[in-house]
Amino acid sequence: MSRQELITDNQVASTVQKKTEEKLSVGKSYTQGQLIWRRFRRHRLGVFGGLVISVLAIISVFAPFFAPYDYANPEYRQAFMSPQKIHFVDTDGKFHWRPFVYGLTATVDELTWQRVYVENPEQIYPIRFFIRSWDYELFGLVRSNLHFVGVDYPGTLYLFGTDHLGRDLLSRIIYGGRVSIFIALVGAVISAVIGSFMGGISGYFSGKVDSIIQRLVELLQLFPQLPLMMALSAAIPSDWPPMGVFIGVVVVMTLVQWTYLAREVRGKVLSYRDADFVLAAKTAGAKDMYIIATHIIPNCLSHIIVVLTLTIPNLILAESSLSFLGLGIQPPMVSWGVLLRNASNLQTIGQYPWIMTPGVVILGTILALNFLGDGLRDAVDPYGN
Question: What is the Cα–Cα distance from 141 to 234, expressed in whole angstroms?
Fold first, then answer.
């Protein structure tokens, strides 16, 4: 196909697309939010990422309800138990409508002398939903023992296996997500507030104010992110309680991350500073800080949300790295990084590979957040690429 024919075909396709959009928009008017939502729905990976993050958020918020077992309760006789298989057909070939698991019997491997667990076909435990089990307090207010899934005692349901103390790995991942996601979300929100404020002031006033703020930003960005976080985290006293360490980790991440959003907001504010609506507000006698807070920053809000969505994965990775190195969340609190610390021994990984499951969960969460961020970016600024 010649170049002229290709250009003609592209022009025809563009004309058809414009006519189709005109037909769809006849008699209708859409707000900016509705247009963004329409564009976002066409981004399949973005929608998929949003659904995954929504499910993770719900499970994390209601962790005691979705966790089959108490994440801190050890069962030493069931240490390093491999993930249990879910069955629909028993050894006799009979199909069961309700999925079930077999009971497990502990034996010793004659070659390696390691304890292994063998399924006992004579013990069948149906998987039940909304089952009564261990007691918990939801949000410290509602006391209950209702759980989403489980099996009747003395059966066990270790879908992701157990760790070296016999604690259910799935329950610990659910509770760990509660901490890791919350730290990343809170850190990202605080970083967005500080970054928007500093970036707005820097871009609006320009001059010496802009120079001072940008030099501060460059000073913080001069150091590699992870070593800087490690240095700041090492300053947290070791005798602090777990909640104090939790707050300290959030503060450390905020001190490092706000600079990136400040740069982004500054660029947007520079383009809005001489806009007609800003000049009109100045003519009406509005003060500078009022103009920044009520006129300029709201116009940057869609861009801030996109940057915020792309910042959360970085904070999850940062928290996991710090906790893995022993500089972040400390036991008895649990996070995904704390769980990965158990997988730091190559011999343990080789013998019990399911210990790496938290790493897979982190990878899936990061990918989902990146998909969501890409979808929001394309929806907010379809001509940005």
Answer: 35
